[in-house]
Amino acid sequence: LVQTLVTGVVFGILVLVPVVLLDHELYGKWTVTPLNIFLYNTGFGGGGGGAGSSVLYGVEPWYYYLKVLVLNFNALTILVAGSGIAVHYLAQGSSMAGVPLVPVPLWVVLLSALPHKEERFMYVIYPGLCLLAAITSYRFHMEYGWPHPRYDTRGHPKPLRKGSMPKTFFLLLLAVPVLGFARIAAVSVHFAAPMTVWGELRSVIPLSPCAGNCTICVGKEWYRYPSSFFLPEGSHLAFVRAGFTSSFRS
């Protein structure tokens, strides 16, 4: 455990140093961005009446992230929920076997305690969720020998165990891509307004007086800007200095 903590600290420093140097170059002052994010969102920085300045952008109930995970990972959340039992059977007495289980619930609990919540805050644990689902799947394979047979020490295939569990597991895995594609389609259809608006620039800008040298101003909502891919040739982005952008370097 001590070695794991030391390794984490060392790699944390290796990542933090270039981040601080790059931020100094971009912002024109010494700052630790991860620390600023922590202070801004938790209230330790003095904003939001002790709840963090991020409450200005909306608050959600404590179970918000649970809904998000079920929505994005659909049937895989069942496998994630069973990963604790799977690790217990696969541990074989190892004291470190439970380490993969720690980051996901820890991250969800800590962020659920903050009033302001956003779906993107969960992105960092998505690889961990996939790992936990894979552990449960492996345990299922060890138990039932499905979808392909297990082999004994002599290389001979063991017989598949019959019953309803393999069929249920197959339907569960089948539901993952089906629901995933349905989610992607729903987002693409019902939340396409920003992309549609930006997509019209290529047909509108050439007809404007500034064609070839246009400034596209997004006001203070620079964080909603999707990509430079949408800017026509000869155009460049601009925004109003306000809020987050007030500290940006000219």
TrEMBL record:
Which EC numbers does the record give? Answer: 2.4.1.-
Annotated GO CC locations: endoplasmic reticulum membrane
- List where the protein spans the membrane: 5-22, 37-57, 69-91, 97-114, 121-140, 169-193
- What keyword terms does UniProt attach to this protein? Endoplasmic reticulum, Glycosyltransferase, Membrane, Transferase, Transmembrane, Transmembrane helix
Membrane topology per record: Multi-pass membrane protein
Q: Does the keyword Ribosomal protein apply?
A: no
Enzymatic class? transferase
One molecular function GO term is: alpha-1,2-mannosyltransferase activity
What processes does the entry annotate via GO biological process terms? protein N-linked glycosylation
Pathway assigned in UniProt: Protein modification; protein glycosylation
The source's superkingdom equals Eukaryota
Q: Where in the cell is it found?
A: Endoplasmic reticulum membrane
Q: What is its main location?
A: endoplasmic reticulum
- Could you confirm whether the keyword Transport appears in this record? no
Stated family:
Belongs to the glycosyltransferase 22 family.
Name of the protein in question? Mannosyltransferase
Source species of the chain: Noctiluca scintillans (Sea sparkle)
